Amino acid sequence: MAQRLILRGFASGALGGLLAFVFARILAVPVIERAIDYENGRGAAENALRGGAGLATVGHDHELFTRGVQGNAGLPVGVILFGVAMGGLVAVAYALVARGMGPCPRPRVVALLIAAAGFAGFFLLPFLKYPAAPPGIEHAQSIQTRGGLYLVMVAISVVSVIAAGLAARRLAPRLGGWRATLLALVGLAVWVAIVAAILPSVEPSQPLRDASGAVVYPRFPSDVLFQFRLSAIGVQVVLWTTVGLAFGVLVERLTASAPRTAHLAARHERTADALTS
């Protein structure tokens, strides 16, 4: 049974990744291209300033893969593999949660709740502290720092969501399901807010100025930044919603066919006993 659940989780994740890629290819990639154009223009302006001051210009690293390969091959592979991994985690979480729930609600409801928890832990809570950053929004030296801090925030968020779910489950017999859930969510929000306040922030790049302080190249366009972050949210919503819905449907079909399979097996066993007696 567990193997069947995991396989269905992988299939749901692959479907979610595919739909998320289609969403990203249509809405996110054009915004990323605009961000790359800004980054290239800013780099050219910085080199012009350095050349005018008699300093060595900064060269650009040669890209191993072209932008076309990255967008048409790297993006779908990365998003689909991420979806498969998250689908597998949803399946494992479903197997653990459903095992001790007693009279279990519809698998579709449980799967959607687990997917919502995954969306919150892996994306939404970290996003609130370190929102998605397009190319050109930060200094090159701060990208690695931001990546490390983001991973720390993801780890803390995932553990916190799991802890909130366990707390709600333990409090439910005494407080009732809704009160226990509300109390756990309030505790989660307060804890994540404290963590976000403690972790350092990463400042975006400022307008490029010359020696006199005059602006040579403007700061990153706010409309591009807004569209990029909105599309990043959309990609994750599409992925996690698809995983939750698809996995729930597949599990419902699996659980519906299980009694019928058991009935047929028992019938065949009785028939075999009758023939041998």
How many E strands? Answer: 2
Shape: elongated
- Gap from first CA to last CA: 33 Å
Strand order of the largest sheet: 1-2
Task: Report the average pLDDT across residues.
Answer: 81
Helix content: over 70%
Low-confidence stretches: 259-268, 270-275
Oligomeric category: single chain
Number of helices: 6
Q: Estimate what percentage of residues fall within beta strands.
A: under 5%
Order of helices and strands: HHHHHEEH
Structural class given helices, strands, pairing? mainly alpha
Query: Biggest β-sheet, characterized?
Result: 2 strands, antiparallel
Gyration radius, to the nearest Å? Answer: 25 Å
Provide a short characterization of the protein structure:
The protein has six helices and two strands. It is mainly α.
Please explain how this structure is put together:
This protein has 277 residues and is mostly helical. It has six helices and two strands; from the N terminus they run αααααββα. The longest helix has 55 residues, at 222-276. Residues 259-268 and 270-275 have low confidence and may be disordered.
Task: Compile the SSE list and pairings.
Layout: H1 2-52, H2 67-99, H3 107-129, H4 140-175, H5 177-198, E1 208-209, E2 215-217, H6 222-276
Antiparallel strand pairs: 1-2
Helix pairs in contact: 1-2, 1-6, 2-3, 2-6, 3-4, 3-6, 4-5
Task: Name the descriptors.
mainly alpha, two-stranded antiparallel ribbon, 6 helices, 79% helix, elongated, disordered C terminus
